[in-house]
Amino acid sequence: MPSSSEKRKADHLSLCATDDVAYKNKTTLFEQIELIPRALPELRIQDVDTGTSIAGKSLAAPLWISAMTGGGSEAVAINKELAATAQELGIGFCLGSMRPMLSDPARAADFKVRDVAPDALVMGNIGATEIMRNGPGPSLEAIAKIGADGIGIHLNPMMELIQPGGDTDFTGVIDAIAALVEAAGDDLTVFVKETGCGLSWRDGEDLKKAGVGVVEVAGAGGTSWIGVETLRADGAQERAGKIMWDWGIPTAVSTAWMVDKSFTVISSGGIRSGLDIARAVAMGAALTGVAAPLIQAREKGGISLVREYLDDLIFGLKIAMVGCGAADLAALSSVPRVLGPDLSRWIETGWQGR
After folding, report:
1. Of 35, 108, 221, 318, which residue is 20 to 30 A from 185 by alpha carbon distance?
2. Gap between the Cα atoms of 314 and 49, Å rounded
3. Angle, CA of 148, 152 and 157, to the nearest 5°
């Protein structure tokens, strides 16, 4: 019999294979970032350089496969396939929650992907509340066992509140993050990520004080993980989830806030095209992440369709870069841009507390 955790992970995969868990009315607001076109770009598309580096690893494009699932037999196969694809394309890969390893060290085999991704950027991932309960030691030991380049700490309070049996106590999380950053030292990259609701300006201030240098915003506009848990819940949690379904900070907004706080920013949550990637980089993101569309592509056409989707993202990025006359990512990060009224209002409102 599968454990309750494995059943939950299987439910997550099944639900995310459709668009039924997308935000209903809230968007990423990337559509309100207009890059100024160049009719005279003086570029050949084959000369456009999309290369970058993070955590000491070189990437062929500012893209990684964001965390999706950890635990369960199907998740093991998915992680292997996605890690191998990341290796092939020269992009990054982040594992889903490694929580099963903390209670059963034998589960390390479920998260080992170095045999198929020996050179790729591979990041582990654990929930902040797990670090709070267990201290930094077990999580760092888990990372060492799988040979990852770093560890992500995921934050998901609203998701947990709607999740049947989820956590309800989020006190002490900042101190736990600070303890892990200190224990990791300079040899291991530590980043903090949200889970579909974005990071606020005040979150950024707290994370800076905790010593965090890299964040993944995982903002609103793509998959609503509150929505995922709402479809699994009943009673008061289901009713609350329906109300809170669209809770979150649009990805473009959270990206701008975290860039302004001088983080190395991974922009994720609703990234759906090469143009979205270009917009995120133009706003200062160092990397972008994509998750749910890959699960959906795999469901429709296997790993070959996943590869095609990722190829299209990278090609679309190059098209956008030629279109605005940017030969590399540094040039793209400084191209002129026009921001729409909703995006501007969000950004300025979040900065008022400075």
Report:
1. 108
2. 11
3. 150
Buried b / exposed e over 114-139, threshold 16 CB at 10 Å, is: eebbeebbbbbbbbbbbbbeeebebb
pLDDT at position 2 over 60: no
CATH number, domain at 74?
A: 3.20.20.70
Reduce the DSSP state of residue 233 to 3 states and report it. Answer: coil
Surface-to-core class of residue 220, CB atoms within 10 Å of its CB (0-12 exposed, 13-18 middle, 19+ buried): buried
Q: How confident is the model at residue 290 (pLDDT cuts 50, 70, 90)?
A: very high
Closest CA to 229 of 311, 161, 129, 329: 161
pTM of structure: 0.95
* pLDDT digit string, tens, across residues 240-289: 999 999 999 999 999 999 999 999 999 999 999 999 999 999 999 999 99
Alpha-carbon separation of residue 156 from 14, 115, 249 (angstroms): 20, 30, 13
Maximum CA pair distance of the chain? 63
Q: Are 104 and 145 in contact (CB under 8 A)?
A: no
Average pLDDT over every residue of 334-354 = 87
- How many angstroms separate the CA atoms of 153 and 128, rounded? 6
E strands, 112-170, in order? 122-127, 150-154
Six-digit token string for 241:
């989830």
49: its two tokens: 């350089």
Q: Could you give the number of structural domains in the chain?
A: 1
The pLDDT of residue 121 = 98
In degrees and rounded to multiples of 5, residue 118 shows phi and psi of -65, -30
Distance CA 309, CA 97 (A): 24
Handedness of CA 41, 45, 48, 53 (dihedral sign): positive
Query: Could you list the residue range(s) of the whole structural domain that residue 346 is in?
Result: 4-351
